[in-house]
Amino acid sequence: TACFALAVSRRASPALTIGQVRKRLGLTYRGAQQNVEKLVQARILREHTGRRRNRIYIAPEIVAIIHRKQA
Predict the structure, then answer these.
(1) Model confidence at 37, in pLDDT bands (50, 70, 90)?
(2) Distance (Å, rounded) from C-alpha 19 to C-alpha 42?
(3) N or C: which end of the chain has fewer CB within 10 A?
């Protein structure tokens, strides 16, 4: 499914936007938004900006791993 493809593709970057998901997976904006929301509900992604538009979603566990490796 698109949601699985998105979760697997998180290896490339710990942050993404709906527009990036749309382009990467060839989805409509709404389709990308729905798949990101599924990952937010599963606590795989978290909205980072607090804005209504131009939101950035992060994968907190990937960020934590990156910070541990840098320390």
Answers:
(1) very high
(2) 20
(3) C
- pLDDT at position 50 over 90: yes
Q: Which residues pair with 15 in a beta bridge?
A: 58
Residues 29 and 23 sit within 8 Å (Cβ to Cβ): no
Q: Write out the DSSP string of 24-68.
A: HHT--HHHHHHHHHHHHHTTS-EE-S--SSS--EE-HHHHHHHHH
φ, ψ at 46 (rounded to 5°):
-140, 135
Residue range 7-17, pLDDT digits in tens:
555 455 778 99
Q: Is 67 exposed, middle or buried (0-12, 13-18, 19+ CB in 10 A)?
A: exposed
